[in-house]
């Protein structure tokens, strides 16, 4: 059940000059302040007549996103509450949720490899079929058709998550000498088996032999 709640925000922070981009993005506290400014600005736009023609869902610092309706009403979306601290995982969770609810075209704006791999995995796992694209943040880059990619790589997508982790991602350091191209080539050639890596239902020890064999193969 959705609950309508009043939200308070401060306008004063919007008028503060921004520091250099590198300084903002490399300091955790600065990034938090930037997120707060963005959320505050978006909420402020809802107070302007005709501010939004469609509903807008915003995920900020809090676990529970808020939805701004076209009439300016603000709602806490408890049904979309996320406790994961990784922004990449939250982006994908909301994208998959939107695809399941709306059954229409979904565009995810990101340049991150983690987001790309997560989208492929969950798109297949949820048996989605609607158009979905990963849009770049810069016009010079090419957008990626997620649905078409899943169709081409569906036989190896189950191994893409562990392969991505072994070759280095946001939360896991890469194994020495194992890059993205090398491990992807091994997976496509069926020279390694990573299906059990990360499987919480796998009995302890069962994943060790195929994992060691896969790492050895990629080191050769």
Rg, alpha carbons: 21 Å
User: What pattern of helices and strands is seen along the backbone?
Assistant: EHHEEEHEHEEHHHH
Mean pLDDT: 76
Biggest sheet, in brief? 4 strands, antiparallel
Q: Portion of residues in helices?
A: 40-55%
- By DSSP (H or I, 4+ residues per run), the number of helices equals 8
* Shape annotation: globular
Low-confidence stretches: 1-13
Task: Return the structural class.
Answer: alpha+beta
Provide a compact summary of the structure.
The protein has helices at residues 21-25, 28-46, 87-102, 113-125, 146-153, 157-166, 180-188, 208-219, and strands spanning 3-4, 56-58, 66-68, 74-76, 106-109, 132-135, 144-145.
Describe this structure in words.
The protein is an alpha+beta fold and 220 residues long. The protein has three domains: 1-81, no CATH class; 82-154; 157-219, no CATH class. The chain has helices at residues 21-25, 28-46, 87-102, 113-125, 146-153, 157-166, 180-188, 208-219, and strands spanning 3-4, 56-58, 66-68, 74-76, 106-109, 132-135, 144-145. The chain has a four-stranded antiparallel sheet, covered by helices on one side. A three-stranded mixed sheet has the order 5-6-7. It is globular. The N and C termini lie far apart (56 Å). Residues 1-13 have low confidence and may be disordered.
